[in-house]
Recover the amino acids of this structure.
């Protein structure tokens, strides 16, 4: 019989790629993770892992077992939600991670409303790609993130869609909607590599026929706005993060969702938080 607790270890390894990183996510020692994986291989009766230097990849049997592990994890989340609903749990704490403008737009108002229902939100500022990792690792209950960051392991609930605007320095000639192609010779202020919003900017510029000349980088939109105001360049930013000038034609969009681990959406506390976030 396969121990479902060891399936959680296998999922963490698949998510993080190394025993050390999986151990950190699970708050275990690397030796404990290795022992659990060895025991799981014995239970499964198939080799599950292939080592490549410090990294570990999954065998076909390992990939297959991870797929089943996702299903088992969702059912366990659903079982816990059913038990909590049976106990009529209507008060407690729910951990939420969201990027700054989403905290302003939806999380803070939801927090204020939920306090009157004895539901406490624990809020963590995190970019969309980081909140997804936190959700996978079980460190939070709800992630506010971009729609394209989610996977089949999550149930997602649409919150809002916002366009990207062009942020221009004082005195720039543009006053109305801006054709991105007209900014091909400008210096640009963008987010750091790895931030999905940087991909949006680079793709939008590529569709306009040029690659942005990147001079400054920051993941803090207040810093981006300050740099643009100082004449350091131009930027493209989600409207709720920085108010700018509309893009001419079809503007890039950010579709924001609330994501939870599949199966946990029926938990009474999480359901109450999701309903309030959507409201």
């Amino acid at each position: 019989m396969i121990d479902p607790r060891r399936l959680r270890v296998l999922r963490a390894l698949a998510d993080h790629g190394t025993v050390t990183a999986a151990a950190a996510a699970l708050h275990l020692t690397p030796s404990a993770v290795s022992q659990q994986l060895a025991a799981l291989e014995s239970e499964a009766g198939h080799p599950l892992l292939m080592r490549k230097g410090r990294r570990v990849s999954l065998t076909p049997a390992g990939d297959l077992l991870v797929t089943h592990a996702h299903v088992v994890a969702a059912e366990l989340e659903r079982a816990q939600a059913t038990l909590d609903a049976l106990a009529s749990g209507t008060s407690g704490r729910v951990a939420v991670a969201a990027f700054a403008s989403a905290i302003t737009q939806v999380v803070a108002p939801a927090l204020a409303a939920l306090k009157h229902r004895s539901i406490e939100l624990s809020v963590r500022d995190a970019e969309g790609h980081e909140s997804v990792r936190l959700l996978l690792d079980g460190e939070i209950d709800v992630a506010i993130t971009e729609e394209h960051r989610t996977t089949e392991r999550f149930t997602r609930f649409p919150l809002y869609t916002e366009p990207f605007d062009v942020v221009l320095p004082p005195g720039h000639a543009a006053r109305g909607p801006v054709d991105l192609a007209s900014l091909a010779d400008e210096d640009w202020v963008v987010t750091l590599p790895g931030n999905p919003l940087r991909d949006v900017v680079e793709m939008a510029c590529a569709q306009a026929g040029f690659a942005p000349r990147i001079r400054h980088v920051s993941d803090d939109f207040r810093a981006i706005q300050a740099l643009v105001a100082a004449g350091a360049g131009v930027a493209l930013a989600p409207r709720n993060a920085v108010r700018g000038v509309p893009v001419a034609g079809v503007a890039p969009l950010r579709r924001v969702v609330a994501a939870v681990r599949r199966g946990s959406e029926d938990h009474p506390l999480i359901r109450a938080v999701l309903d309030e976030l959507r409201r």
The first helix runs from residue 4 to 16. The CA atoms of residues 169 and 231 lie 5 Å apart. The mean pLDDT is 90. DSSP finds nine helices and eleven strands in the chain.
